[in-house]
Design goal:
Largest sheet: 11 strands, antiparallel
Shape: globular
Helix content: 10-25%
Mean pLDDT: 80
Number of strands: 13
Distance between the termini: 12 Å
Number of domains: 2
């Protein structure tokens, strides 16, 4: 009796574990680089000493080249050319950590087929940190609730979303203004966005059934051996 109980409990346990075992693997969904070498990204100080932060990040219809995108089979001809927009404000004061400036920003972004609109290749919101020093800075955001993504062409926008923006040729080199916020600058910009590619529900069911069947065979053989030896 104890062997039979163990047999069915183990089988039930495998069904419960089938979905977690399948896992979710994040992958890049869009990668871009700025078209040209002119500094088009800007950071501007708001001139509000005493308030948290005091810097605004801005990208207005910056021409970019998309070098990789999920679902590219559905993209129109000439899709690599696009436009990048971003608006973000600092929400904390800047800090110096091991030689790097760190400051939190909250904002939105969009990558579209035309200046001012067109097809929404990818857009969303974020709330995370800008960090770096000298002529290079980076903005990263990752999580399940934030950042948020939406797209007219990319379907894999599930959990484990991530944003990584790189600012090169930061001019003047990164500094803290008014002893509290990232100083104003211009730069070049590139980016990489990622999201989980979750298995389809039907795939999860088949995985669970297949795994359960394998366990039933193994446990069945062990149970028969125990009964024969009794």
């Amino acid at each position: 009796m104890r062997s039979k109980a163990f047999f069915f409990l183990a089988a039930a346990g495998l069904i419960a574990l089938a979905i977690p075992m399948s896992g979710a693997h994040a992958g890049s969904i869009l990668v871009f680089g700025q078209s040209g070498t002119t500094n088009e990204f800007t950071a501007t100080n708001t001139g509000s000493p005493g308030a948290a932060g005091g810097t605004v990040l801005s990208a207005v219809d910056i021409p970019i080249t998309i070098t990789g995108i999920a679902g590219s089979a559905t993209m129109p001809a000439g899709f690599p050319e696009a436009y990048f927009n971003l608006s973000a404000s600092s929400v904390t004061n800047a800090e110096l950590y091991q030689g790097n400036i760190v400051q939190d920003f909250s904002g939105t972004f969009s990558i579209t087929s035309f200046a001012g609109g067109g097809t929404n290749y990818l857009s969303g919101s974020f709330n995370d940190a800008v960090f770096g020093a000298g002529a290079a800075l980076g903005l990263t955001s990752s999580g399940t609730a934030v950042p948020t993504f939406s797209s007219a062409v990319i379907s894999a926008l599930d959990d484990l979303r991530g944003i990584s923006l790189s600012f090169s040729n930061v001019t003047p080199p990164a500094y803290i203004a008014n002893e509290q916020t990232l100083g104003g600058f211009t730069s070049n910009v590139s980016g990489n966005f990622s999201a989980a590619n979750l298995p389809e529900p039907s795939s999860l069911i088949l995985f669970g059934i297949g795994s359960m069947a394998l366990l039933l065979v193994v446990l069945g053989r062990r149970l028969r051996k125990r009964v024969a030896a009794a």
